[in-house]
Write a structure and sequence with these properties.
Protein name (chain B): CAAX protease self-immunity
Radius of gyration of chain A: 26 Å
InterPro entries (chain B): Rce1/LyrA-like_dom
Oligomer: heterodimer
Organism (chain B): Streptacidiphilus jiangxiensis
Structural class of chain A: alpha+beta
Order of helices and strands of chain A: HEEEEEEEEEEEEEH
Strand content of chain A: 15-25%
Helix content of chain B: over 70%
Number of strands of chain A: 13
CATH architecture of one domain in chain A: Sandwich
Keywords (chain A): Membrane, Transmembrane, Transmembrane helix
Number of domains of chain B: 1
Structural class of chain B: mainly alpha
Number of strands of chain B: 0
GO biological process, one term (chain B): proteolysis
Chain lengths: 260, 189
């Protein structure tokens, strides 16, 4: 009797251990910003994107906030990670800056990191248009400016929220100084409208909607592609509506003929 | 004959793919944040679950207990992150609509995946295959709205929900777990 009870219990224990292991692995492989919704049905309601300079006709919003974080330096050792995050719901910027990436001046006791929203100044990216604000990531100390000359680590990442979830996805671009050319970063979508890239250093970051030169010029009226997009939900709904009765008919037929 | 035998299972998976495409195309630039697209998606899944053969859910405290226990496990990491890294306050006025749609879609996903499709997969290939296939489908259905980055975690969560389905013996337990974990996200983000 006890052996009979033990077998299902050991199976439950094994299954629980497998599940916990898989969950731990899943969380380890998931980017920092990909917090819930992950098992979801509906994304969280974000407030409208806050622009520094809104496009014409855009609704009125509060000014975008500056992401800030500070840390204490003790005996030359800084905080493990500075994490400036802006206050919008959801945050429009979040940057992870490991202290190991920074060259901290001697005698520093305090570090302050900022991710400041700006309108685009200087040269625009050559491959597209900036979508949303430019974010300038800076770190200062009580002994002067701080440079990021160390090697980026796995914690060196920046996430920017796009003004909407519209696809195709934008590319994150970076320039070290306002006069430097923009360079593409490896960009990963980590949420409904959130994009993450490695943080190679301090400077300006922006999401860029890449211009596809092969695209035909916009013509007046509704384009065929847009028209097709408009009818797509109806086509899909029609397919589903036709599909469901077919499955039901097969199941009923099987039941009548005595199959499973 | 084989086609007829497999249609409720394969057809359920194809129907799920169509429902995801319908959701994405309806949501447009709102993405996962569109309540209308969420409700249409949930309704499509409920209909598919019913036509694919949904076993009668068992409603009792044991099911609720399994579901609540898994939900608690799923919320551990988000809760730790929330405490250690802070989070955002959601707009309170949105909570009733948001929670209603989230609960509806979570239950609908479970009725199809851990309800009808789980049973059809188990009939064909056994318990392990049922857990694996429904977990994979669960992970893939989230990719179009959240990107590939969610795949590893959603795959793991899918396995957990399938395991609870096996242990509890009914779709009710994973439906409770899924719904509670999703709703907790409002306070854990």
């Amino acid at each position: 009797m006890s052996a009979m009870l033990r077998r299902p219990r050991s199976r439950t224990v094994r299954m629980s251990a497998l599940c916990l292991g898989l969950l731990a692995l899943g969380w380890l492989l998931t980017p920092l910003t990909a917090t819930p919704p992950l098992y979801d049905g509906l994304g969280f309601p974000d407030e409208p994107y806050r622009y520094v300079v809104a496009p014409p006709g855009y609704q009125h919003t509060a000014a975008p906030s500056v992401g800030e974080d500070d840390g204490i330096v003790f005996k030359g050792v800084g905080p493990q990670l500075l994490l400036p995050v802006s206050d919008e719901n959801g945050p429009q910027v979040q940057a992870g800056i490991p202290a190991s990436q920074l060259s901290i001046p001697a005698g520093t006791t305090q570090l302050a990191a900022k991710a400041t929203p700006l309108a685009l100044t200087g040269a625009a990216p050559s491959d597209g248009t900036v979508w949303g604000n430019v974010y300038r990531v800076t770190v200062t100390s009580d002994r002067g400016p701080v440079a990021a000359t160390g090697r980026p680590t796995s914690d060196s990442v920046i996430s920017l929220r796009a003004p909407s979830a519209q696809q195709p996805a934008p590319v994150m671009e970076y320039r070290a100084t306002p006069g430097a050319p923009w360079q593409d970063l490896r960009t990963t979508r980590v949420g409904n409208d959130i994009y993450q890239s490695p943080l190679p250093g301090l400077g300006d970051y922006a999401l860029v909607r890449v211009t596809h030169h092969a695209a035909p010029a916009a013509s007046p009226g509704v384009s065929p592609a847009r028209e097709a997009l408009r009818t797509l939900p109806w086509v899909l709904a029609g397919l589903l509506a036709a599909f469901a009765p077919a499955i039901l008919a097969v199941r009923l037929h099987r039941r009548r003929s005595g199959e499973a | 004959m084989r086609v007829a035998r497999d249609l409720p299972f394969v057809g359920g998976l194809v129907g799920l793919a169509l429902a995801v495409a319908l959701r994405v195309s309806l949501a447009g630039r709102a993405g996962a944040g569109s309540p209308t697209a969420g409700v249409v998606f949930g309704t499509a899944l409920v209909v598919l679950a019913l036509v694919c053969g949904l076993p009668r859910p068992v409603l009792n405290l044991r099911q609720a207990g399994w579901g609540a226990a898994l939900a608690a496990v799923l919320c551990v990491v988000p809760a730790v992150r929330r405490v250690t890294m802070g989070g955002v306050a959601e707009p309170e006025g949105m909570l009733p609509l948001w929670s209603a749609v989230v609960a509806y879609v979570a239950v609908a996903e479970e009725l199809l995946l851990r309800g009808a499709l789980f049973e059809r997969a188990r009939e064909r290939s056994g318990d392990v295959a049922a857990v694996a296939v429904t977990a994979l489908a669960f992970a893939l259905l989230h990719v179009p709205v959240y990107g590939w980055q969610v795949l590893p975690l959603d795959l793991a969560v899918g396995v957990c929900l399938g395991a609870v389905r096996l242990a509890a013996g009914s779709v009710t337990a994973p439906a409770v777990a899924h719904t509670l974990a999703d709703l907790a996200g409002w306070w854990l983000r």
